[in-house]
Every structure is written in C-alpha cells, then in structure tokens.
Write a structure and sequence with these properties.
single chain; alpha/beta; Aspartate Aminotransferase, domain 2; 2 domains; 13 helices; globular; binds pyridoxal-5'-phosphate
C-alpha cells in the first residue's frame, strides 16, 4: 500500500454550515436581495452583540469601505496626515490616499506587534488629524495610551478592528471604546464572514448619519426606505457625491447566522491557540503575546516568530511545512516594503526596525474553527520535527 498523504491543511477556511445555507436560500427566495430587512436586522444584532448603549452599526460591503466612510465622515482630506502602523494590510491606509491625505507609517511594539504609542507621539505634526490603530492578529492595542495622545493633540481615532471580533481592552469590547469609529471585516478568512462585508460602528449620531448617506450614493433614503415608507417611492435627494458601499441582504443573512455562532467560534479559536501555546513552548520560537489577564484575544491570527539560532530560515520553514501539506501565511509584508508606499514616501526598513525584524522572522500557522485537534497536531509535530 502506498503511503497516503493527508489532505492539504489550509492556513484558513470559512466555517459555513447548513444554517447559513438555509438563511441565504431564504434571502434569495424572499424577493429582496440587496440592502433591506436582513441588513437592518444584521446591524441591530451587531450593535446588540457589542452591548448596545447607543452604538450604531452601519453595514458595508467591506471593511475597506467602512474605513473610507469613517475617515470621510471625520472630514479627512488633502494635506491631512493619519498615523498608522507599517505592519498591516494595505487597506488600512489606502483609504487615506482615496481622500488625498497622507498616511504616516510608524513602527510597532516588539512584543505585541501593535502600533507603538511612543512612535505615534513622535510622528505628530501640525498636519496630523487622526490615528488609525490596528488590533494586530486580534490582540487589542494599548488603547488608553492611544486615546490619551489623541485627546492631548485633538486627534480623531478610527480603529481598524478587522481582526478584533471579539477582542476586549480592559474588559470592554473593541467597538465600545472611546474612539470615533471602529471598523470590522467579514472577509472570507476573518473570525466571521459574509463572503465580503464589513461593519462601521460609532456612538456619534452625526458620524453614523454621514456614513449611512455616503454608503449609498449620497442619497438621503435607501431603497428599502423608499419602498416601505409613506413618501412616494420615486422621490429621493442626492446630498453629496457618495459611494456604492452597501451590503446585500444575501450577505447579511449569512452574517446573522455567523454572528450567532461567534461565541462558539471564539471558544474554538481560544482552544486551538492555547494548544499551540502549550505544545510549541520550548522550540526556538517567539510565541504570540497573549491578552492581559481578564481580556479577550480574538485569535484571528496565530503569528510565530523564529528565534535567532533556529535551524531553518523563515522562508525554508514555510517551504518545508508546505511540503508536509501545511499551509501558512505571512502577516504582513510591512507597508514600507511595498513599492507604492516605499517610493511615494521614501521609506526604508531602518525606519521601522521592530516591524522589519518581525516580518523577516514571522509566519502565521493554520488557525480556523473547523480545524480539528488532529489536524493541528500535524502542524505541531511538523514544527517539532523541523525545529526541535
Ligand atoms: C482584512 C483586513 C482589512 C480589509 O478588510 P476587507 O473587509 O477585506 O475590506 C483591513 N485591515 C486589516 C488589518 C485586515 O486584515
């Protein structure tokens, strides 16, 4: 008998069950497929999940769209600067460029890999208007320090919470902190998915109103309102040159089910992360920072770093794992190494020693709710074989 190779273990896979399929089917059969009752229900359920308290949720077709709407609503424009970490996905800061403003990239903390508050402080100029922290991998940034800097300098704060559902900072859920807007992602590999989608949340009614209007062409009524309210359906007013960022009811139907499953998803991620933490200790690795006692890490990502003196380089380790049928990824090639950001702002790796060193040593292991303990054991065994 030839030895059977186990199936390839991907780095991430969405967890979509029969309930999601039934909900999407129902949305398709309902006769209303674009933004409508399911999207409204999803927004309400999302606000309730985060604990309500005057929070408004605005569903959008991506977190990128949500970040763009948030900065637009805050009045960010040409000449303004927005401070963000270099160790993130390009979406975090491409939206700053959409508005003609300039991102100012800064280094990260070497332990948490989150934006370093002292680097924010050092990057402030008279043009600085906002800070864009990213809760890297699902571990909260030091929000007390960031919000204190923002208050001191009159800056806005928009949290890129694409990884942070659910994450807490000092016992409060990200989404309920004292920033201006928080934006979540429901992209395929995030902690819950709508295929593509996102949610902007805020407690500021004026920002919520502006984001709602700009989400749909700058029209002051959405299609569902037009077809359900007493005002004639044909009448609407354009009050700004808006965007086309609304979420479909098909996606919202999927999101409603995923949101209900989120506590169970979190439990599974916590279980898998704890197993990695326990079973990889002792190898020449820097394991990811855990949340402070009492706080929640969403464990969207499980990011390892090779310790100095490890037998293999990061690239060789990724290759060897791939040959053993194990998918990994790297989060992220820091923005200062991408041609557009590097050349436009004259950036060099020496300006970001922590993020750059972390990048060269890092890889993200498979971590997804549908991964079995046995599948995870294959990853753990391979790392012991290759590095032990
Ligand atoms: C996924 C991601 C985004 C973008 O999310 P989309 O919903 O795909 O637009 C933004 N920032 C970070 C850090 C992400 O990981």
């Amino acid at each position: 008998m030839p030895e059977t190779t186990p199936p390839f273990l991907p780095f991430a896979r969405p967890d979509i069950g029969d309930a999601e399929i039934a909900a999407v089917t129902e949305a398709l059969r309902s006769g209303w497929v674009t933004t409508g009752p399911k999207t409204r229900a999803f927004e309400e359920a999302f606000s309730a999940y985060l604990g309500g308290g005057g929070l408004q949720s605005i569903a959008v077709n991506s977190a990128t769209a949500g970040l763009h709407l948030a900065l637009e609503a805050l009045g960010i424009g040409p000449g303004d600067e927005v401070i963000a970490p270099t160790l993130t996905f390009t979406a975090t800061v491409e939206v700053v460029r959409y508005l003609g403003a300039d991102p100012v990239l800064v280094d990260v903390d070497p332990v948490t890999l989150n934006i370093a508050p002292e680097k924010i402080r050092a990057a402030i100029t008279p043009r600085t208007k906002a800070i864009l922290p990213v809760h890297y991998g699902g571990l909260a940034c030091h929000m007390d320090a960031i919000l204190a800097i923002a208050r001191e300098h009159g800056l806005k704060v928009v949290e890129d919470a694409a990884h942070a559902l659910p994450t807490t900072w000092r016992g409060r859920l990200v989404g309920q902190l004292d920033s201006d807007v928080t934006v979540f992602s429901f992209y395929a590999n995030k902690t819950m998915t709508t295929g593509e989608g996102g949610m902007a949340v805020t407690r500021n009614p004026a920002l919520a109103e502006r984001m709602r209007v700009m989400r749909l062409h700058g029209i002051n009524r959405d299609a569902f309102d037009r077809f359900t309210s007493k005002t004639p359906a044909w009448y609407y007013e354009v009050v700004a040159p808006g965007f086309k960022y609304n979420l479909t009811d098909i996606a919202a139907a999927l999101g409603l089910v995923q949101l209900q499953r989120l506590p169970q998803f979190l439990e599974r991620r916590q279980h898998l992360a704890a197993r990695y933490q326990a079973k990889l200790a002792g190898l020449p690795l820097v394991l990811p920072a855990e949340a402070p006692p009492g706080d929640v890490h969403s464990w969207h990502l499980y990011v390892l770093r090779l310790a100095p003196g490890a037998r293999l380089s990061r690239d060789a380790l990724i290759q060897a794992l791939s040959e053993r049928g194990i998918g990994t990824s790297v989060h992220y090639v820091p923005l200062h190494r991408h041609p557009y950001w590097r050349d436009r702002y004259g950036l060099a790796p020496e300006q970001f020693p922590q993020a750059d060193a972390a990048y060269q040593a890092m890889l993200s292991l498979p971590l997804f709710t549908a991964m079995s303990d046995a599948e995870q054991d294959r990853v753990i065994a391979a790392l012991h074989e290759l590095l032990g």
